[in-house]
Amino acid sequence: MAATGGLMFGYDVGVSGGVTSMNDFLKKFFPKVYRKKNETGVDSNYCKYDNQGLQLFTSSLYLAGLTATFFASYTTRRLGRRLTMLIAGCFFIVGVIFNGTAQNLGMLIAGRILLGCGVGFANQAVPLFLSEIAPTRIRGGLNILFQLNVTIGILFANLVNYGTAKIHTWGWRLSLALAGIPAFLLTFGALLVVDTPNSLIERGHHEEGRAVLRRIRGTDNVDAEFTEILQASRAAQQVKHPFRNLLQRRNRPQLVISIALQIFQQFTGINAIMFYAPVLFNTLGFESDASLYSAVITGAVNVASTVVSIYSVDRVGRRALLLEAGVQMFLSQVVISVILGIKVTDNSDELGKGWAVLVVLMVCVFVSGFAWSWGPLGWLIPSETFPLETRSAGQSVTVCTNLLFTFVIAQAFLSMLCHMKYGIFAFFSGWVLIMSVFVLFFLPETKNVPIEEMTERVWKQHWFWKRFVDDGFEDGDEKSNYGHGNGNHKVLDP
């Protein structure tokens, strides 16, 4: 139920691309784009959708989410994960009402901003909730339920767009209004679930936290885990300024990894494809129905490949999935760039059936690689590596970085497509190569390691990061009588 926050996020990602390729929507809100799209003899087939206002429709959601995540950090820590998810659901519902009934561009953007606030709160709370509620042995698979719901949301949006594109004058309204279904599911789900033991204990509800721990573990023998969480909570309570604490040397490995993963995740180019899949396929010469159909295919591949990740992440490990997918994504984008460079000229209207099928196939190869690696693991790894005293602040930085670079890509992609043409895929493939090298040397394996033992068993054992993690305090550290969230907290001598 908690993971349905991903369903709403995914629907938002998927629906915007289909709606922005519908003539009725463009005619009402972006008449210049509508005229350019339907003109013959435009300067470049790649530039039909190059419009800052149209890009703002997509990207405003992520800019709002970026701002909201800082407020979400406070509510997640002070009010709990569950209440934060409930707030997200309320933002989503109001945003859906604004979008579905929009009469002008102002209402449309206002609705997207409200949805963005919901994304900021949901993306802050849901991955933390899932990581904290899960037993260690299946934490990876359970956390990836969030990403699975994101991919299902994208597929659902693509299917809806495929149907509503045939309903003239108001089909786009139906596409935007049906976001109310995942919005309601998250709100209803947040009312049903219990808060995490970590959150309850952190807020002083010790007996309630112990009761929840017994309930979710299915046993009364939870004393060891309860004591570990309690000690981590006491360390966390000594930290009055978690964001300042996050900048300390001993927290640098988790901070650098979480920020790098979010930047790299966006520079794979996945959101460029998912936001604008129908627009992209239209640009490449597909007919309108064919472009939406191709987007549905890529959405289905996305869902199926995420299921693969659920079953493999706790067996194969995080690093192996990221490295294998890096090779797969790099090669597929190079092939797409070469095909488009040879076959799509500035004024071409068609790619040719055989080449079009190959492009869709390569897009599917790329999407599958992302879906079982960078998609889910970009959220999983940061949520499981921060100690409790900086976990909420760390997740806030993670979400903020993700939404900032999602905004950058969403706002820039159609302009980049216009100016870089087929070279945009070569650009993204270069980033895939860089991030694969980063994983090879700097990302430690975290599978089957309890959250509160990450410092001792992961960071202190890594060839590079161990120099940042020690048992001493630096000048300016917020001192406490406890350790650093590693599960082995000992009282220090005065």
Automatic annotation (TrEMBL):
One of its GO terms (cellular component) is membrane. It is a multi-pass membrane protein. It is found in: Membrane. The chain crosses the membrane at residues 53-71, 83-102, 108-130, 142-160, 172-194, 255-279, 291-313, 320-342, 354-375, 396-416, 422-443. Keywords: Membrane, Sugar transport, Symport, Transmembrane, Transmembrane helix, Transport. The keyword Magnesium does not apply. InterPro entries: MFS_dom, MFS_STP/MST-like_plant, MFS_sugar_transport-like, MFS_trans_sf, STP/PLT_plant, Sugar/inositol_transpt, Sugar_transporter_CS. It holds the Pfam family Sugar_tr. NCBIfam families: SP (TIGR00879). Belongs to the major facilitator superfamily. Sugar transporter (TC 2.A.1.1) family. This is Major facilitator superfamily (MFS) profile domain-containing protein. It comes from Vanilla planifolia.
